[in-house]
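TL;DR need structure tokens for one chain.
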Amino acid sequence: MDDLVTTRLILHRLTVAEAENIAAEEPERLPHWVPGYPEDDDVRAALRFLTAEREGPGRHPGAYEIRRREDGRVVGGLDFHGPADGDGAVTVGYGLLLAERGKGYASEALRAALESARARGVRRVKGDADHDNVPSHRVMTAAGMRLVGEDERVRFYETDWEPERLQTAST
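>> reply
TL;DR here they are.
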């Protein structure tokens, strides 16, 4: 699978071997990993990806390292929490290392991931963030997702594409 390239980032789609290394109890530290990577969320993303690949190779929309184009160093991760469900929906999660937040990387990465998911036939992408995670609310809004609800703890966002528009985009 090809990496997703944006103005400032490369979303490197993990291979099974790379995901296994990230998920390992003592991963081999790679030269492009910055101190602090992988974080716990990156390990969980790698495990979700590996589970999905065992259950049906190639169906998972992707788990990615977010890398800066300028130096190839990892600044975070983004993944879909499994293959699309029966309605064509997936949930997305993302995170950046603390030193890399506030630079617009998360919105840039999420926009690219949404476009890729749409091209792969995903019809709806969902995301959520705790009420006090205002930066994540801004990220999802900036990437084109809209607030669709909330409960006592979390705000829910999503973006969807009409089936007719999906057909038009693929022809």
